[in-house]
Amino acid sequence: MEAGTAMARLVIITGMSGAGKTIAVQSLEDLGFFCVDNLPPVLIPKFAELIEQSNGKIGKVALVIDLRGREFFTALSESLSYLKDHYTIGYEILFLDATDGVLVQRYKESRRRHPLAPEGLPLEGIQHERRLLEDLKGMATQVIDTSTLKPLQLKDRIMSHFTNADQSSISVNITSFGFKYGIPIDADLIYDVRFLPNPHYVEHLRPNTGQDAEVYDYVMKWPETQTFLTKLLDMLQFLIPQYRKEGKSQVVIGIGCTGGKHRSVAIAEYLGRMLGASDTETVRVSHRDSDRDRH
């Protein structure tokens, strides 16, 4: 084995049809990855062999695997197991997802037919595809929910993640949300903070969000908030290194309240500051629903 080959990086891009795999490929191409679209899974070991024989000349590779090659799709887990047993190349699985409603809308806008329902309704194909991909999503090292992301935002997320060359680090994404708008489908951990006193019922605080100092201080001043944060931080400081040891490159933590505007935002901001002090984690905080009711 040549010394340079150990640095090879293999990314497998997969996920729901219409969730943004084309943008993912373009983003990785911009980062210098050699990309192959629609590769049959049975050829993954052969591709790994070519990478190792290149003596480091092929260092960053991205392979798109999707249901256009569904006759080969069941071989994916066997190919990945073979890769792990016979090659030194590490691999990551990037899984792109979106809600059924968003995917249906995207198919309507593009006037495309779903590959698994060429003669039927897009929703039928989407639901069938989701069932087929359920196990693969569980194997993914990174899941991105593109439901609310614009193309440039998705590109930024992907490039930010894959620009980080330190494979010993882990990306921690903390997102606040409102339960009434649905749970983030890419979350690994969900915490419900609806038990905390609600600034919504304080008239002068209602228009603001948990990023405003007055709302933040209101959420933080209660004994139950401090007790919860002490226990939550203790749990996360235990869990995150375990995820990193298991090989995960990303953990998504969802913090939810009723509307995603006050309590969840304040708690997410606090966690971002506390976890962001670590040298082994890259922490990113986002607020999915905080601006929905601003007007």
UniProtKB/TrEMBL annotation:
It comes from the Bacteria. The keyword Nucleotide-binding applies. Keywords: ATP-binding, GTP-binding, Nucleotide-binding. Residues 171-290 form the RapZ C-terminal domain. Pfam families: PapZ_C, RapZ-like_N. This is UPF0042 nucleotide-binding protein. GTP binds at residues 66-69. It comes from Paenibacillus phyllosphaerae. Residues 9-163 form the RapZ-like N-terminal domain. The keyword Protein biosynthesis does not apply. SUPFAM superfamilies: P-loop containing nucleoside triphosphate hydrolases. InterPro entries: P-loop_NTPase, RapZ-like, RapZ-like_N, RapZ_C. ATP binds at residues 15-22. GO terms for molecular function: ATP binding; GTP binding. The lineage of its organism: Bacteria, Bacillati, Bacillota, Bacilli, Bacillales.
